[in-house]
Structures are given as C-alpha cells and as structure tokens.
C-alpha cells in the first residue's frame, strides 16, 4: 500500500489535489482517503439507535445502509511506542493506516498530518521542518508526475495486507496452506540495555531484487504457489513488526519449510543494515561486542 | 568512473554514501576509496587485507576484489547484512 500526505496551508489546494489524483489512482487499484480534522465532527444525533449503541459503551459503531456504510468511535488509548513514530505520538493515524492496509487498499491519500514522517506532496513551497517531502509545488505538477511520485514511495505493509496479496495472486485449487513468519523489534535482550528502536538502512533496488529472486527460487519448488516478503526500513520502534514472510502452499509441511528458508535467506543475503538504539547508546548490529 | 556506494557504519564514518573513483578492479576501487577517506581504513582492512566480512557488489552482484569493473556503474561496499538477532 502506498501512502502520501497532501500538506499545505489552508486554501492552497489540498482537497483539489486529492480530487485530481484520486481518479488517476483509482484506475490502478483500490484507494482510500483520510482527513485530519482539528475540531470535533458530529456524525450522530442524540436519540438515534447508533447514538444509543455508543452510549451503551461500544467502542466502534458501524452503520450499514443499502448503498454505503459508516463507522465511528473513540481513538484507541495511545500505547507507548505505538505507531511507527519514534515517540509513538502519531499513534492514531498509524493505526488507521494499518487498518486500511489490512483491508487491502492499494493507495491512501491523507489530507494533513504534516508533522508525520509519511511521504508528502506539498501544495506550495514546504516549510523547512517538514520531513519526507517527495513533491514540492504539487498543484503545478502534472497528474502523471504525481502518480509516479506516489508509486515511488516505500510501500507500507502489514501481515494482513501481505496475506491478502499472497492469496489474491495465487488461487490454485491445490493451495491448501498459508504459513507466515513475522519478526518484531525485541525490547529486551538478555544482558543488554533496553532497545528503544531499530533503524534499518536498505540498499534500495538491490535489496528489492534480492528479495524477489529469493521468492522466485522458493516458488520454483513443487507445492509452493506464492512467496511474499516485506522488510520495513527506517525507524521501527520496539514492539513493532519489522519483517514478514507469507507462503501459499499445497500442504503445511512445505509451507513451514518455505517460510523458514525464505526468512533465513532474507537475513543472510539481502543488503539491509540494522542499527540498534538502546537506552545506553547505539550500535550497528554487526559491531555488536 | 565508477560510483562506490557505502552503507551502515562505513557511510557514517565517511559522512557520505557515494564516492566516485577511477579504477580497474573492485579491490583497486576500495583502495582509492580509502585514499580519499582514510577514516575507512580500520573498518575495511586488517593487516593490509580487506576484512573477510566486508561485502563487495558490482551492479548488485557479489564480486571478489579482483573483479574488473570497467563496465560496472555501481560498486557497493558494506558490512554483514542485518544478521541473526531478530
């Protein structure tokens, strides 16, 4: 899933940019949008059934009409380290994006969240403190250039989105097993200072090519139909997932073996470098004393 | 000219991720790199030999030091990949 934020001051054309970009992306996949709103919005009326559901203490209410659906609820309680932001302070947008990834969306256009690390299309000249701006003066860019920029951002995946992808790309009638591996950032290592986060650095295209070739090798085996791998890069806080492998196979034995071989080869062969940041200091994993 | 890409602690020590050098072989490119960035010497060499855990790739493919790099666009020098601490 590719996510970009559209950022800029009021009345600089953020919503218009989304209106221009959405139809172009819609031709390429499923698209969702998220809007950051700085005031409370009332979507429910006192006394309505859905209102009464909320009053009765449910966390999320979903209304289903003949042609659409809506849902609302409170933010989940922010958990320490939740989200991919180092301090976890943008937990809610991170959770929304993970939900959209799980739901199988290919693109998300986010209006706002300029203080996040998400890739950004800036409508005008961006402020110096904006991180990760991929297009400046985006209102002046051709739609095709904007689509290109969206396609080039690092994909954001979850275990759910990858399982979906693996199942969708192979519908063999003989596929009877889906097996997965997820690596997480451990907070505690025996005898070591507590880890706060990891920083992964990737040899871009070379890493992607290696992962593809490992997946292709394993897919050549009898009874293996699909292998999907994803490794996050950049900052991943302790407790968060950093790598996933999903295998669709005929039977469980070959599925488990393929998952194990895929993650072992990924860790041995793919040029991704890991810096561990602990409460006592930081070091690259290969320099570990 | 070949572009030499640096990663992880090598990139941090050199304070750059990319160096252009003129060279005939991968090992020669690494020597030129160290001439330009002496701070890399201890990270790359032990007793005058390229340290065994250092990886070299030419346009993404693993190579030995004696590999000719005349037709190569991009060499990369990097430490062991992320390793078994997951």
Most extensive interface: pair and counts?
A-B, 27 and 19 residues
- List low-pLDDT spans of chain B: none
Query: Mind summarizing the main beta sheet of chain A?
Result: 5 strands, parallel
The poorly predicted ranges of chain A are: 80-89
Which key terms come to mind for this protein?
heterodimer, A: 289 residues, alpha/beta, Rossmann fold, Aldehyde Oxidoreductase, domain 3, 2 domains, four-stranded antiparallel beta sheet, 14 strands, 28% strand, B: 86 residues, alpha+beta, Ubiquitin-like (UB roll), five-stranded mixed beta sheet, two-stranded antiparallel sheet, 3 helices, 26% helix, globular
Describe this protein's structure.
- The complex is a heterodimer of chains A (289) and B (86).
- By secondary structure, chain A is an alpha/beta fold.
- Chain A folds into two domains: 2-151, 3-Layer(aba) Sandwich (Rossmann fold); 159-287, Aldehyde Oxidoreductase, domain 3 (Alpha-Beta Complex), CATH 3.90.1170.40.
- Chain A is built from seven helices and 14 strands.
- In chain A, the strands form four sheets. Chain A has a five-stranded parallel beta sheet with strand order 2-5-1-6-7, sandwiched between helices. In chain A, strands 11-9-13-14 form a four-stranded antiparallel beta sheet, with no helix packed on it. Chain A has a three-stranded antiparallel beta sheet with strand order 8-12-10, sandwiched between helices.
- In chain A, helix 6 packs antiparallel against helix 7.
- Chain A starts with a strand and ends in a 5-residue tail after the last strand.
- Chain B is an alpha+beta fold.
- Chain B has a single domain, classed as Ubiquitin-like (UB roll) (Roll), CATH 3.10.20.30.
- Chain B has helices at 8-14, 26-36, 41-44, and strands at residues 2-6, 18-21, 45-46, 49-50, 55-58, 61-62, 74-78.
- In chain B, strands 2-1-7-5-6 form a five-stranded mixed beta sheet. In chain B, strands 3-4 form a two-stranded antiparallel ribbon.
- In chain B, strand 3 (45-46) and strand 4 form a beta hairpin.
- The longest helix of chain B has 11 residues, at 26-36.
- Chain B is globular and about 30 Å long.
- The A-B interface holds A 183, 189, 200-201, 203, 205-206, 209-210, 242-243, 263, 267-276, 284-288 and B 5, 7-9, 11, 53, 55, 57, 60, 76, 78-86.
